Amino acid sequence: MEFFRIRKDIPFMRHALVFNIISLITFLAAVFFLATKGLHFSVEFTGGTLLEVNYSQAPDLGKIRQQLESDGFADPQVQNFGSSRDVLIRVPLAKGAESSKVGEQVMASLLKVGAGGTAPAMTPQLKRVEFVGPQVGKELAEDGALALLLVIIGIMLYLAFRFEWRFAVSAIIANLHDVVIILGFFAFFQWEFSLPVLAAVLAVLGYSVNESVVVFDRVRETFKKKRGLTTPQVLDHAITSTISRTIITHGSTQMMVTSMLIFGGAALHYFALALTIGICFGIYSSVLVASPLVMWMGVSREQFVKPKVEKQEAVV
Amino acid sequence: MNRYPLWKNATVLIALVLGLLYTLPNFFGEAPAVQVASVKATHKVDARLMSQVEAALKGAAVVPQGVVLDLNSIRVRLADTDTQLKAKDAIEKTLNPVAADASYSVALNLVSDSPNWLTGIHALPMYLGLDLRGGVHFLLQVDMKGALTKRLDSIGADLRSLMRDKNIRHGGVVREGQTVAIRFRDAETRDKARAALANNQPDLQLADAQEGADFRLVATLMPQAEKRIQEFAVKQNITTLHNRINELGVAEPVIQQQGIDRIVVQLPGVQDTAKAKDILGRTATLEVRMVDDEASANMDIMEQAARGEPPPGTEYYIERGGRGLLVKKQVVLTGERLTDAQAGFDSQTQEPAVHLSLDSSGARIFKDVTRESVGKRMAILLIEKGKGEVVTAPVIRTEIGGGRVQISGRMSTVEANDVALLLRAGSLAAPMEIIEERTVGPSLGADNIDKGFNSTKWGFIAISVFMISYYLLFGVVSVLALSANLLFLVALLSLLQATLTLPGIAAIALTLGMAIDANVLINERVREELRGGNSPQASITAGYERAWATILDSNITTLIAGVALLIFGSGPVRGFAVVHCLGILTSIFSSVVVSRALINLIYGHRRKLGSVSIGQVWKPGV
C-alpha cells in the first residue's frame, strides 16, 4: 500500500499567504472567545467542592438544586454526568464556612431530597468527592502558567541550539497558535478545563513541535544537499517528502486518542478532546504555518552551508 | 551487512527478559490478606510477633498461604475471603486481648498473588493511585505562622525568667506579631540585657528601638531558626499523623511532606471521610506525674489496684516492662511545656537516653519538683482518647534545672528513639487545615481501570492493524517494537513503584500513540531510499541512520514538555508526567534499537537480498 503518490513537489509556499491569513483568523477568533466567554475552569482551579453521586433511578435535578439552595449553598451546579442516574454537583467556595465539611453537608442535603419523595430507593451513593481550598486553586493556575513558560523557553533554546533562531521562533509561534486555538475551543463550547486538559495541552505543545522539527530537519538536509533551489522550493520539497510520515504518524496517534474518546468514559473525555484538536491543528500549523514563517524571516542556504574560509598569510 | 554485534543483541535480550520479569507480577492479580501493624511506637513488628501471629493462625486452624514480614507490618496471605475474616478474628484476639486498648492494628488488605521468588527480586505489581483503587486523599496545610507564634510565646517566657535570673529590670516582655519586644528604662540596662540575651539565645536577632521615653529591644527569630522550627513542626505533625492513622487500621497509608508546609495523606480503601477527618484532627497530650512509690511497693494494694480499685488519688497503669504502677492523679507538667525530645546518649555512662527540652516555666516547675523528690519515681504518660499509657517511670537522681531533662536507664537505642518519637508525637506542633480532599469510591476505581485499559487496548489494536497492513513485515517489526515499549514501560513503573493513576494510564496510551512515530519515520525513510534506487541492505542502513537524528530531536522536544509538567505538575498531572517522560525514554530504545535488532535478525544475514517486505514502494514515472 502506498497512499502518497506524489510526482512533483507540491507548491505549498505559493499559497503561504493564504495559510497565514486562515491561521490569523482562527487565532483571532480563539482569542475573541477566550476574552468574551472565558474558560470554564474545573473545581481544581477555582476551589470548591465537587461530588459525584449515583442514584438507582434518574433523580429530579431541579429538586436537588432547590434543596441545596434552601440549605444555604450559594449557586450550586447540578448536572448529569455520563448517565441520567449519575449526578455531578459543584458547590463554589463559601467564605467563613468550614469548607472541608461541605462534602458531608451536601450529602445530608441530598438525603433530605430522598426523604421528601416517596421511594426510599432515592438514597444516593457517593462515588467521588473533591474538595479544593482557595490557595490550592490559585497555585495550580500559577504552576500551569509556569509550566507553559518553561516548555516554551526550553523548546526555543533547544531548537535555536540545534537549528537556527528563525526555526525556533517560527516553531514556537506556530505551536502556541495551536494552544490558543485549543483553548479557544474550550472557551467557545464552555467545556470544562481541568488539570488533565492542561496536561494534554502541554503534551500537544511538545508533540506538534516534533512535527516542525521533522520538516526543519529536511529543510536543513535539502539546503545542504541540493544546490540551485530557491528557498520556497526547498521548503516545498521538505514538506512534500515528509507529508506521508506526518499524516501517518498523526493518524496513528489519533487512533489511540479516538480509542480514548470512545472507551475512556467521562473522566478522559475532555483530555482526549483537547488532544484531538491539538493533533488536527498540529499538522496544519507545524507544516503550513511554521514553514511560511521561516520563509518570511529570511532563511537561506548560507545559514547552513558554512563558506570555506581561505587562510590568508599574514603580512609582516 | 546489517548485523548487530553480539553485545547489542545481548543487551536487547537482557532488557526484554528483565522487562518481562518485572511486568509479570501485574498479571497475577491480588489475594486476600490480613495486615498487622503496630499502633504504638513502643510495640515493634518483628520476628517474635510473626511467630505469635503464626501460632494464632494455627490455633484457629487457618492455613495461611504465606506470612511475610516487611519493614513495619506483617502480611498473611490467605486462600479466600472467608479464611481472611477467620484469620483476622484469630489474630485480633491474640494480639489485642483488650479490644479497647489495642496495641496492633489488624486490617484486611489485598496482596499481590505473584509467586514468592518474584517478590524476592522486588518484582511487585504497579502501585495503583487512589483514583484506581478507591480511597481518601487529603492535602493538609500546616499553619507555619502558628508554629512560630507558639515558639515565640515560649521564648517570651524564657526571656522573662532569664532576666530575672540576671537581675535585669525590664518594663515587660510582649510578643507583637512575629517579634518579641522588651521595654527598658534606660539604654544602659538595655545593653546589659542585650549582652545576656546574645549569650543565652543564639536563635534570636536583636534590634534596638525607641518609642517615646521607652527603650525597647526587639527580638526576632533568625531565618535559620525560623526554618528549623517550621521543619520541626511539619516533621512532628507527620509523626503524629502516622501514629493516629495506624490506629485506623489502614493498609498502606501514604503520609508525605509536600513542599515546605504541606502534608499529603492518602488512605486507600477508606470510605468514611468523617471518621478519618476526626482522627486526623485529634490531639494527644503528654503528662508528667509522680509515682506513688509506697503504695506501688505494697503487694496487697497493688493486687487490689489491678482489680480496678486503686487507692484514692492514684491511678493504676501497667508499665512497659509489664509491672503495675500507681501514679498520682495530680499532674506535674503537660506536654505543652515540652519543646523538643531527641534520642541520644548519656554523656557519662554512654547509655542510650532521651533528651527533653522544656520551656522556661516548665523548667522552673521541673526544677522545684525534682528538688523536692530526689530518690522518688516520676512517670511520663501519654494520654490519648482519655486513656493514658506510662511511657517510662525513671527514678529522680538529682535536682534538674535548666529545662534540660534526660531519661535514661534500661533502654536500648531503638527504645530511646521510640520514646523520643512518642514524646514528640504526642500532639501537633502546629494547627493544620485540610485544603484539598478527594474521595473515590471503590466501584469508580475499578471502572477507571477498565476504561483506561480498554482505551489502550483498542488503540493499540487499531495501530497494529494499520501498521501491518501498510508496512507488511516492517509493520510487524514496528508493532513488536511498540509491544516491547509497553513492556519496558510497565516494567519500569512496577520497578520504580511509581503511582499509576487514570491520567497515568492515559499517558501510557498517548505515549504509545506517539512512539509509533519513530517507526513510521524509519519505515518511510527506508522506502524513500528504496525509491531512490538503493539496494535493500543499503536502504535499511541508511533509513535507520538518517531517521535517528530526527527521532532524537523530536523526542527531546516532547521530553521538554514532559519535564516541565513533572516539575510544576501536582496530583493527577504528575502521574501523567511521570509516565509520559518514562515512556519517551523507553520508546527511543525500543523503536530504534529493538526494531533494528529484529530487522537485522530477519534480513541481516542474507548476502543477496532481492527485496524487503515493507509494502509497495511507488516510484514516480514508472
Outline the structure in words.
The complex is a heterodimer of chains A (316) and B (622). In chain A, helix 7 packs antiparallel against helix 8. Chain A has a four-stranded antiparallel beta sheet with strand order 3-4-2-5. In chain A, strands 1-6 form a two-stranded parallel ribbon. Chain A has ten helices and six strands. The model of chain A has no long low-confidence stretch (mean pLDDT 83). By secondary structure, chain A is α+β, with helices and mostly antiparallel strands. Chain A folds into two domains: 198 residues, Multidrug efflux transporter AcrB transmembrane domain (Multidrug efflux transporter AcrB transmembrane fold, Up-down Bundle), CATH 1.20.1640.10; 85 residues, Alpha-Beta Plaits, CATH 3.30.70.3400. With 622 residues, chain B is α+β, with helices and mostly antiparallel strands. Chain B has four domains: 182 residues, Multidrug efflux transporter AcrB transmembrane domain (Multidrug efflux transporter AcrB transmembrane fold), CATH 1.20.1640; 84 residues, 2-Layer Sandwich (Alpha-Beta Plaits); 82 residues, Gyrase A, domain 2, CATH 3.30.1360; 143 residues, Gyrase A, domain 2 (2-Layer Sandwich). Chain B has 17 helices and 22 strands. In chain B, strand 9 and strand 10 form a beta hairpin. In chain B, helix 2 packs across helix 3, helix 6 packs across helix 8 and helix 15 packs antiparallel against helix 16. The model of chain B has no long low-confidence stretch (mean pLDDT 81). Chains A and B meet through strand 5, helix 5, helix 7, helix 8 and helix 9 of A and helix 9, strand 21, helix 14, helix 15 and helix 16 of B.
